[in-house]
Amino acid sequence: MPQRETAVHLCGLNVKLSSYALTADLAMNLRLRILTVLAAMTVFGLGDVRAQDSAIPLGSPMPALDARLTDGSGNATTLGARRGATYTAVLFWGNKCPWTGRYEDRIKLLGSELSGPGKVILLINSNDSAAFPAEAAPASAQYAAEKGLTIPYLADPDS
């Protein structure tokens, strides 16, 4: 049986599906399932989403230097206390996010190649640890140890 390729266009995305027996009914069923998931995410999954009004230009002073953070042992710290003299890169991370998992190797590389005196890279987990215990500071420390991440991994308990 020859392999068929079908293109599905949904919400501005073009997805090519390869299958040995993809029928028009199956393609329609897939579209309906994707629409259902997108609708559920829109209604239930996004919650209170906020973003800053505009991008912070490179070289700008770091905002929120006094933001309270905790490390994996529960020790309090701030961005100001962790700031590097040359630069500070802040990456927002999550233990259970499928997207961050895809970047683990890149983060390890950043940690090994771009760290040094005055150069700081921080991972910050800003997920709600009360709603998602797997995102709490101790869980983040365990995650970092299991994944071999050497970059400091902090939690934002106020987010």
Structural summary, described in words:
This protein has 159 residues and is an alpha/beta fold. Helix content is 32%, strand content 23%. The chain contains 5 helices and 7 strands, in the order ββαββαβααβαβ. It has helices at residues 24-45, 79-82, 98-101, 104-113, 137-147; strands at residues 4-10, 13-19, 68-70, 76-78, 87-92, 119-125, 153-155. The strands form 3 sheets. It has a 3-stranded parallel beta sheet. It has a two-stranded antiparallel sheet with strand order 1-2. Strands 3-4 form a two-stranded antiparallel ribbon. A hairpin with a 2-residue loop joins β1 (4-10) and β2. The protein is globular, with a radius of gyration of 21 Å. Residues 1-22 and 45-49 have low confidence and may be disordered.
